[in-house]
Amino acid sequence: MTGAVKVAVTRRLPEQVETRLSALFDTVLNDGDEPLSQAALIERAQGADVLAATLGDKLDAAFFDAVGDRLKLVANFGAGIDHIDVAAANAKGVTVTNTPSVLAEDAADMAMALILAVPRRLVEGVTALREGKFEGWSPTWMLGRRVRGKKLGIIGLGRVGEAIARRARAFGLSVHYHNRNPINPHMEEELEATYWDSLDQMLAHVDIVSVNCPHTPATFHLLSRRRLELMPPHAYLVNISRGEIVDETALADMIEAGRLAGAGLDVYERGGPNDKLLGLSNVVLLPHMASATVESRIEMGERVIINIKMFADGHKPPDRVILGLDEDF
Ligand code: DGY
Q1: What is the pLDDT of residues 163-192, one digit of tens each?
Q2: Nearest alpha carbon to residue 236 among 256, 206, 215, 214
Q3: What is the DSSP letter of 57?
Q4: Is residue 296 lining ligand 1, measured as CB closer than 6 Å?
Q5: Dihedral angle over CA of 258, 218, 58, 323, nearest 10
Q6: What percent of the chain has pLDDT over 70?
Q7: Which of 42, 158, 276, 278 sees the fewest Cβ atoms within 10 Å?
Q8: Residue with the nearest Cα to atom 7 of ligand 1?
Q9: For residue 291, which atom of ligand 1 is closest to its CA?
Q10: 98: Cβ below 6 Å to ligand 1?
């Protein structure tokens, strides 16, 4: 790329990231942090070489058709790329990058927090106390389920899944996982992880399920009603990946009916949780905050900058999304 590289940013980013972007490139920021309308998004991208986009920006085939020829790189702030039609981008000569590794540890902390919080009824306890319902210790009040010794089934043992597995081992959980292919034997041995070729069989066997695969057409409602019904009634579900992977209506029905013991969710099918989930006490609902640490967001910004800089200097950016590869789990 020659001349000043024009970068359009779609949302507010951490201050030092914006400062650095502005120092390195001809950068248009979004000071107001308002999500852009589709028309505004297209207009912003039309005048730029690089779009520093993020979750919530709908970059579909129509967007890439409308955007014209100048745009050459979408540098996504975030790991998930289900809001980007990468094939349509590539067909128009647009490279897509993401920020895959820097948020894995923080996201795994949050998954682990949910794995602990739901069986141990952490939020129920806090709520009861705040509502004045704590009348002193009792042998039979607020009993949860022990975490140690339980079987954790990870759907998608990638970067985040692996970081969760390491934490889970420290808490005495045994690790089970379903991927399209087994992970390398050394890591499997280190994690003492059991591979399940059949997701159905794993679901029937484990006590806690953690969803960590990406959302793709192939994983939409991977946890369908039929599959959720395979889980034992004492089992819990944790999802910090994408809401669309779980049939949320079925999940709420099953928890309400006592067919599942509870859930910890950071992501939802339609942005926020459905009304039934909101009314259930044995679910912990978070507002998509698994990667929300200052450190993570700054490092995500760093990756965005590195990807843009490498691309602008004529090199392959390190976090190129490669179709097929990144959809695997
Ligand atoms: C991502 O990076 O896609 C996450 O969902 C944001 O936390």
Answers
A1: 999 999 999 999 999 999 999 999 999 999
A2: 206
A3: -
A4: no
A5: 140
A6: 98
A7: 278
A8: 291
A9: 7
A10: no
